[in-house]
Amino acid sequence: MADEITPPPPPVPLPVPRTAPTAIWSLVLAILSFTCGWLLTAIPAVICGHIARSKIRKSGGVLPGKGIATAGLILGYIALVLGVMGIPLLVSMIQSDRERLHRLSIERKEIASDDGKIKVTIPGTWTKLPDLNKQAKLQGGYKGKEMYLIVISDAKAAVGNQTLEKHHQLARDRMLQKMKNASATEPIPLTIDGHPAMQDELSGTRDGTDVVFLHTTVDDGDHFQQILAWTLKSRWQQQNQLLRDITGTFHSEK
């Protein structure tokens, strides 16, 4: 019909403005600043916050997210201030820890077997360790530097008529058999705690690890005291003198 009225088309919905991504990033980074390191994310949070506020202001109110950007800025600045204030504290803590380790490294203390008859003097960084070897009467080490020492005591009455050289050689052969690519230096005689002793170096791969043992046997009259001090092969040049010094402090009592 001529007088029919065509209905108007439905209104086209306007797109909902999307929050400025930099505003969201500013808030997220600011929150992370309190859990992942203040300065690491606080600085990007502040930068994103300023960029977001600038874009929102230039959009004439079309681009939302001003509140989020402001919150990110505030939290970012708080984290930034806390981070800057925490730097001297962190430096102080690092220096204090270094001083403590240095003090312990030059300090010396004595550890003894359970019966008190076997003793060695070790640095303050070392401790007694209970599970290095079930046969050992004395065990100690510094796990942080992979340095260890044990003392195994064999009564002469239990091993038969053996000389110091013979006992040292038998123990040396057993150790070499347990290692792959094993090698050894020639045993040398020395004196420890006023007693005759033999010492050599044994190196090889044990349990998949390249190690070097300072192998020492002391004849204290009633016992053959086998002292094994070792570290990783890669650290031997740096640490072998300390292991020799500790071995040299060995003392046994009747």
Structure description:
The chain has helices spanning 21-33, 38-58, 66-106, 156-159, 164-177, 236-248, and strands spanning 108-112, 118-123, 127-128, 138-142, 147-155, 180-184, 188-192, 195-206, 209-219, 223-232, 251-252. It has six helices and eleven strands. The longest helix has 41 residues, at 66-106. The chain folds into two domains: 21-103; 108-252, 3-Layer(aba) Sandwich (Protein Transport Mog1p, Chain A), CATH 3.40.1000.10. The chain starts with 20 loop residues before the first helix and ends with a strand. The strands form two sheets. Strands 3, 4, 5, 6, 7, 8, 9 and 10 form an eight-stranded antiparallel beta sheet that branches.
Compile the SSE list and pairings:
Layout: H1 21-33, H2 38-58, H3 66-106, E1 108-112, E2 118-123, E3 127-128, E4 138-142, E5 147-155, H4 156-159, H5 164-177, E6 180-184, E7 188-192, E8 195-206, E9 209-219, E10 223-232, H6 236-248, E11 251-252
Antiparallel strand pairs: 1-2, 2-11, 3-4, 4-5, 5-10, 6-8, 7-8, 8-9, 9-10
Helix pairs in contact: 1-2, 1-3, 2-3
How would you characterize the largest beta sheet?
8 strands, antiparallel
CATH architecture of the largest domain: 3-Layer(aba) Sandwich
What's the pLDDT, averaged over the residues?
Answer: 86
Helix content: 40-55%
Shape: elongated
Radius of gyration: 35 Å
